[in-house]
Amino acid sequence: MALSSPGTGTGTGTSSGAATDLPAPAPAGPPRRGLLPLLLVGNSAMYALYIGVAGVLLALQVEDVDPANKVANFGLIAGISAIFATVFNPVAGALSDRSGRRNPWILGGGLAAVPAMFLLGLADTILLITIAWCLGQAVMNVYQAAITSVVPDRVPMGARGKASAAVGLGLPFGSTLGALIGAAFSEDYRTGYLVLGALVAGAAVLFTACGREERLPARAPLPVRSQLAAFASALRDHDFRWAFIGRALLVLGYFAVSGYQLYILQDHTVLPGGMKPEAAVAVLMPLTSVAMVVSTVLGGYLSDRFDRRKLFVGASALLSAVALVIPAVSTSWPAMLAFAAVNGLAFGCYMAVDTALVTMVLPNAEDAARDMGVLNVANAGPQIVAPFVASVVVSVSGGYTALFVVAAVLAVAGALAVKPIRGVR
């Protein structure tokens, strides 16, 4: 899974594309009718697959294959597959920039999710599971890179907060749906995989059928060396670099914990009598999602209203740290419920406002998807490190308490990283 930001660069820097490229004009007027609901549906389906697979079904499948080494194996699979997310997201974004189209990439990636999930269900060894989920990450990041770039392509600056909220709501809605599907098919993960793949495919068909797009001017491809230099050039921008660092730190802490949610419920939390960990996930996710919905809507609205992105981003990151301390000091079920609620409030606000902030600091509007792909390395890159960090911390400490503490420290560091940003209040 690679968390994405719905907005991209809005600056007027020099194109990193061909010499004859001109900056893409900013969208004018209100967004096309129906676009925001389509963004909500498209992103909800994407997160449903990510959460349903990585959060429930994949963990159960890994445990079935090798119960004794589930933590190490799951960390290995998550880390290797995240490499594919890191690579395919910016590459697919750059290719969609060059083609001048988003819809074909959304449709192609969405439809390819079905065979990818079918192959994942057939895998019966750790090696085959790893290969299949890497394929799944690849096709889903083609889909994600294209749908992420729809906001800067089609939404004017004045409506970016609302668009960010619509995209951000995809996380709580999709997380709840994915957790429920995962719990419902915990005894038959093969069918669960197919249901999630079909959900993404259906959303892709709906989005491309109903979300009309105007073809952007295509640009000539660059030599490989120039493309690599273009990817790196964004990191030389001061504000972009600090936004990148802040996002990377928070995401690292978030995924170090969330990736092991099922195992935390199995081995750390004292569940009520008769409750299975899969059922506990299906309880926690809706609770987190309700909190996310509230804070996402309020965060997006208030950030537009007061034009204070940094304040909201920093405060929500600090609140995330507070949430992570709760299960560190208590292994009770009520503590996990409190963690789910507070973490939902924190993360929903963070994603809504930080994505609005991102639209204002990426340097090149004409390379929207490419620059968003670079920023999304801050989402996918930490996911490579997080499983290994988590498995080492759990193995060395002998439990999950230290993992929560480490994640809280990373959240605090992520909050501090937004302070140096100069171009956004």
Automatic annotation (TrEMBL):
<dbReference type="Pfam" id="PF07690">
    <property type="entry name" value="MFS_1"/>
</dbReference>
<feature type="transmembrane region" description="Helical">
    <location>
        <begin position="163"/>
        <end position="185"/>
    </location>
</feature>
<feature type="transmembrane region" description="Helical">
    <location>
        <begin position="311"/>
        <end position="329"/>
    </location>
</feature>
<feature type="transmembrane region" description="Helical">
    <location>
        <begin position="72"/>
        <end position="92"/>
    </location>
</feature>
<feature type="transmembrane region" description="Helical">
    <location>
        <begin position="38"/>
        <end position="60"/>
    </location>
</feature>
<keyword id="KW-1133">Transmembrane helix</keyword>
<feature type="transmembrane region" description="Helical">
    <location>
        <begin position="244"/>
        <end position="264"/>
    </location>
</feature>
<dbReference type="InterPro" id="IPR001958">
    <property type="entry name" value="Tet-R_TetA/multi-R_MdtG-like"/>
</dbReference>
<dbReference type="InterPro" id="IPR011701">
    <property type="entry name" value="MFS"/>
</dbReference>
<feature type="transmembrane region" description="Helical">
    <location>
        <begin position="279"/>
        <end position="299"/>
    </location>
</feature>
<feature type="transmembrane region" description="Helical">
    <location>
        <begin position="374"/>
        <end position="394"/>
    </location>
</feature>
<feature type="region of interest" description="Disordered">
    <location>
        <begin position="1"/>
        <end position="26"/>
    </location>
</feature>
<feature type="transmembrane region" description="Helical">
    <location>
        <begin position="335"/>
        <end position="362"/>
    </location>
</feature>
<keyword id="KW-0812">Transmembrane</keyword>
<dbReference type="InterPro" id="IPR036259">
    <property type="entry name" value="MFS_trans_sf"/>
</dbReference>
<feature type="transmembrane region" description="Helical">
    <location>
        <begin position="400"/>
        <end position="418"/>
    </location>
</feature>
<feature type="transmembrane region" description="Helical">
    <location>
        <begin position="191"/>
        <end position="210"/>
    </location>
</feature>
<keyword id="KW-0472">Membrane</keyword>
<feature type="domain" description="Major facilitator superfamily (MFS) profile">
    <location>
        <begin position="36"/>
        <end position="425"/>
    </location>
</feature>
<protein>
    <submittedName>
        <fullName>MFS transporter</fullName>
    </submittedName>
</protein>
<dbReference type="InterPro" id="IPR020846">
    <property type="entry name" value="MFS_dom"/>
</dbReference>
